[in-house]
Amino acid sequence: MSTLRTPASTPRTTDPDWWRNAVVYQVYPRSFADADGDGLGDVAGITSRVPYLASLGVDAIWLSPFFPSPLADGGYDVADYRAVDPRLGTLDDFDALVRAAHEHDVRVIVDVVPNHTSSSHVWFQAALAAAPGSPERARYVFRDGAGPSGEQPPSDWVSNFGGSAWTRVPDGQWYLHLFAPEQPDLDWSNPSVRSDFEDTLRFWSDRGVDGFRVDVAHGLAKDLSTPYRPSNEHALPLDGSDPLYDRDEVHAIFESWRTVLDEYDPPRAAVAEAWAPAPRRVLYARPTELGQAFNFDLLEAPFDASAFRTVIDRNLAASRESGASSTWVLSNHDVVRHATRYGLPDGTDTDAWLMTDGTQPTLDRERGLRRARAATLLVLALPGSSYVYQGEELGLQEAAAIPHDLLQDPKWIRTGHTVKGRDGCRVPIPWTTSGPSFGFGAVAPHLPQPADFGASSVEAESGDESSTLSLYRAALAARRQLQRGELLEWIDAGDGVVAFARHDGWRSVTNFGTEPVALPAGSVVVSSGPLTDGALPGEATVWLA
Ligand code: NOJ
Question: What residue owns the CA closest to ligand 1's atom 5?
Answer without folding.
Answer: 334
